[in-house]
Structures are given as C-alpha cells and as structure tokens.
Known about the structure:
The chain has 199 residues and is an alpha+beta fold. It is built from four helices and ten strands.
Amino acid sequence: xxxxxxxxxxxxKTKHKPSIHKTAITILNKLLLSIVLLLGCLSVMKINPSFKxxxxxxxxxxxxxxxxxxxVYEKYFGxxxxxxxxxxxxxxxxDEQLIYDSKESYKEGVxxxxxPNYLVPVLESGIVVFIGDKDNYGKTIIIxxxxxxxxxxxxxxxxxxxxxxxxxxxxxxxxxxxxEMYLYYQKAGEFLDYQEYLS
Length: 199
C-alpha cells in the first residue's frame, strides 16, 4: 500500500479524469435527447392542430421575452453577460441622458421636440428586436428592455445598431435629424402611459 505525504498528492493520484469514451457517450446522449424532443414536438403538432396554431402565434406574432429568460437564467446560473470579467478601465465615448425641449401626447405615446440632428441615447439597456418601417409610425427601432417593456423609438435615423444587438443604457442609438422623435412604451402587446416612464 502506497503512503501519501499530503492530501494534495493523494487527490492527484486518485482523481479520475473523464475518458474520451465517457465524453462521447455524454455528447451522444444529448444528441439523442434533442432528437427525441424534436420528434415529440413534431408529433404533437401533427396530432393536435391547435398546438401548431399556438406555436405559430407565440413564435411569429409575439415578441420573445428576453428579459424573462435573462431573469430566470441569472437566478439559477448567474449573469448571461460576464460583465464582471470586462475591463473596467474603459470609458464610454457616448454616455448621455435624454434631453428634449417639449413633450406632448401623440397617438399611443409621446412626441418629443429636440434640437436639430439630436443624438438619441438609449433610455434603458436591452435587446434590439425590431428595425424597420411600422404602418402608421414610420421608421421604428424597438428595444426590449431588461425591465420587460418594449420601447419604440420612432424618427431615429443614421443608426449603426443591428437586430438582436444588446445595447447599454446611455449608448448612442441614432440621430433625430428632423428635430422630432416619438416614444411608445409597450408590454404584452398593450401600449403603456409614457408619463410613468418619462420624466
């Protein structure tokens, strides 16, 4: 029987490393489970047409709630974005607050009068879920904020962001070239009163 002088030597000798065989079996099991889940979903869709309609409605007509997914993930696994590992010596080039001359209710939101070629800041961190033209609104950028509210920015031009970008509060969204911009707050398909969110 071999004698060990320290616990570290004992642990080093007795530690089992996973073999390539076990790793291959684990990957194969995950692949098999994924195939079974996919086939199960396809079978349910074939048998039950209402399930297919539910999938179509919730995938194509409703925004996926990234904020809810992020909150659940952070609760059990920690932050999705490893912000603690980022270099904290960096200084943002653009870190602004929203400044406007006047505001007035407009449709389901608010119309803001700003300076000419005003650089629009992001009001709350979130994920860009839409960029394009909306009927009756015009050029629109929608950010699903970390608080679960979708904020529509209308009248913002010259933006360099892309769909599904994660953008931080205070960063540059784009430019209000006409001296006017519009904000619409929405949650679960319902427009909210802007006065609760805009001071």
